[in-house]
């Protein structure tokens, strides 16, 4: 089986939730991790987990929406761990606001982090990937961007944009053997979901709405990220893997 | 990575090509494989290759278009955890040249074959409350082609089955997904195209600059078959080097 031995992986937003899980699972498969997050303590905690899995870790603290700061942080990371082989564009924010109450600033912030953040990270790792003619980018979309959900139109649109970036980059970067794919998580029981809904609420929604009758766990998404990042997926580019327990069965 | 130890996988049409590679890859990851084909010679050859690599294999021979034969051959298999509906056929034809018999055969091999294979194995899967079904779609069924409409139609039907089964079987924890190969270098590709045509195709039409290898598809099958893909159902995993980027 294709592992990720010695690959250097940059995971954005890796201080908590799914990003932390990606860092842990990819490290377990042999990758060294650049742990990017806006919050230093949580990034350090994730880095400790990577180290205790026996892999190298480097902490990069910055806001992904700040392209210059992100580029500088990635340059430092490359000095520390070596060129980035895999980028996991995981950093993202979400807000529940009815459409008519979304202020311009909130709209801008969602797009700055979710869309421009992914753009900035890709742009920063690209010269290194192009120079070596290798690389994999895994973007994190969402079923919200595929099927829509109420009260977070700006988030849905930002995740829809991720699908557009994924498909366009796949075509544009293929000549350099850089593959670009996306995972699209549906209902996942992250710490935040558990805090907001409680396990009882999660069970209730799962019973009523999710065909497989359970929420996904962050690991479910991380395994898909690992598959797309690895050589086993070397003929897969421009595609989306949806992890939703059968909730979002769409497209073709 | 999660292996497939202790699982039994049936691969239809595994006497050659993609199906043979699926059998080898699933066995390499620890599954005992049941090698199905219409031709016993090919099936035995694949089973021999699996055993030679240290795996466990048995053979089931039947015509996938004959429902009674499917029930007889697959009804007695015992526990099957993973079903890979791979058996298929293809012929390049303009619509005027497709006879009613050819049309029916195309649908029967792909659609009816998969349908009654699953119908035969489902009761035991439901009883054990689990199982993985992986269907083989095709980029041609997603995007169409300027010939072979009967093949495109059959492969699109596979997408319909995949999505409907995912919903119908979810209460029993049975996951149903599809892989959708693009242009893959099989023996048939080598027979049908010159080296120059293949090079030309790779350079001009496939963004990653090469044709797929059977292993590329098998790795996707193995991922969907594993516990790591337990939250995925009703989905299509296209493996085509970026040549076909569609849907959402």
Could you write a compact summary of the structure shown?
Chain A is 50% helix and 15% strand. Chain A is α/β, with parallel strands linked by helices.
Molecular structure report:
Chain A is α/β, with parallel strands linked by helices. Chain A has one domain: NAD(P)-binding Rossmann-like Domain (Rossmann fold), CATH 3.40.50.720. Chain A has helices spanning 17-28, 40-52, 67-81, 104-132, 143-147, 153-173, 191-209, 218-229; strands at residues 8-11, 32-37, 57-61, 86-89, 135-140, 178-185, 240-243. Chain B is α/β, with parallel strands linked by helices and 248 residues long. Chain B has a single domain (8-182, 213-231), classed as Rossmann fold (3-Layer(aba) Sandwich), CATH 3.40.50. Chain B is 48% helix and 15% strand. Chain B contains nine helices and seven strands. A seven-stranded parallel β-sheet of chain B has the order 3-2-1-4-5-6-7, sandwiched between helices. Chain B is globular, with a radius of gyration of 17 Å. The two termini of chain B are 27 Å apart. The model of chain B has no long low-confidence stretch (mean pLDDT 96).
